[in-house]
Amino acid sequence: MKLIFPSILFFSVILFAGCSKAVDPIVHINCDGLVTDTLGTGDSGRIYIPNAVTPNGDGLNEVYRPFTQNIDSIRFTIYDEDNTIVFTSNLMGDAWIPPAPSLPIKRYYYKIQATTNNNKKIGVCGDVYLLTCYTINPPQSFYRFEDMLTPNGFTGPTMETLKTCP
């Protein structure tokens, strides 16, 4: 009997240890199913997309859209934090006009699947932030705005002037 008891105790600990209910954070689906087959092919198709937008009515960085080079077709989708699609388009150059955020910063997620002129796939996804002010963390240098885009990527300065968040 002494040999069986430790085995039963060990088995019951394993059995009941898996019964506790953990609270799972929301898993964002925006990157699921993306395909990129341009790696190592020398394909010149490119997608550039800012990670911040400021729908504050100043005429600068008001809309959110990808910029492309040598892309034949595109599917561009924006999700909110609950994985609800808030914008989707198959039109080249189409832009999402985000709502003015009620919070200093609001995060959304984007997913882009494109086909290059050479019939290769490029898939990108990430975060986009709607800003009314700059936070200390992350710093202002973290954000890439549409007006910073140059032929070499987001290397130009921004003309966006936002106050520092309280």
Tell me what you see in this structure.
The structure is a single chain. With 166 residues, the protein is mainly beta. The chain has one domain: Sandwich (Immunoglobulin-like), CATH 2.60.40.10. It has one helix spanning 4-17; strands at 46-48, 52-53, 67-69, 71-79, 85-89, 105-116, 121-131, 149-150, 153-154. The strands form 3 sheets. The chain has a 5-stranded mixed sheet with strand order 2-7-6-4-5, with no helix packed on it. Strand 6 and strand 7 form a beta hairpin. The longest helix is centred in the N-terminal third of the chain and has 14 residues, at 4-17.
Structural class: mainly beta
Which architecture would the CATH scheme give at its second level? Sandwich
H/E element string? HEEEEEEEEE
> What characterizes the major β-sheet?
5 strands, mixed
Structure summary:
The protein has one helix at 4-17, and strands at 46-48, 52-53, 67-69, 71-79, 85-89, 105-116, 121-131, 149-150, 153-154. The chain is mostly beta strands and 166 residues long. 17% of the residues are buried.
